[in-house]
Amino acid sequence: MITPQQERLVLENIKLIGLVIKRYHFQYNDLNLSYLDLFSIGKIGLIEGVRNFDPAKGYKISTFLCKCIKNEIANYMRMCHAQKRRPIGGKDLSLDQEIYSDKDTVALEYYVAKTDFLCFDEQLVQAELYEALFREISKLDDFHREIICHSFSLFSYSHMTQGELAQKFGVKQPFISKEYHRCLKILKENLREFL
Fold it and tell me: For 3, which of 21, 100, 114, 150 is 20 to 30 Å away at the CA?
């Protein structure tokens, strides 16, 4: 429930949702969400922002609300992308995520997939790459190792989204995202010799 004063703030700032959708190009999304869908999701962020706004922290209310709206839409889209990776059979398709952002793009699946149709030389190379990946992930501290292993369902870890990991560790989802990308950067540098 929101108070009448909070309801008035929501109505006064409702136009911020359209501004955020346009400014951050959410209307051009690969999930085919309509403008009304995005507006509805943004309204949830607006209401949460009004509830959590604290003028003592020195933020302008419009700046704070824009951030809340943007985060709500981005989190919803992130959740939808995570759902799209899960096929009807229930098995997570998380190994197809790329760990290289430059022209030499490699998926973690390349390192960990066991394929019988490779020739003997290729199987040896892949086994060496698998060992290198295992070695590099083992060098990470427990927190970062869990982020990577849960994100890609590696080494008997169950798949967890960044939101679920944030809940598990008691931190915010953007922090998990930042640490996730930092780990991938470390793996990228340490595995570059195998390309």
Answer: 21
CATH classification at residue 31: 1.10.1740.10
In angstroms, rounded to a whole number, what is the distance separating the alpha carbons of residues 165 and 81? 16
Phi, psi of 45 (to 5 degrees): -65, -40
**77 within 8 A of 69, measured Cβ to Cβ:** no
- Count of domains observed in the chain: 2
| Separation CA 160–CA 152 (nearest Å) | 8
C-beta neighbour count of 172 within 10 angstroms: 12
- How many whole angstroms separate alpha carbon 66 and alpha carbon 88? 36
Q: Are 78 and 25 in the same domain?
A: yes
Cβ neighbours around 1 below 10 Å, total: 5
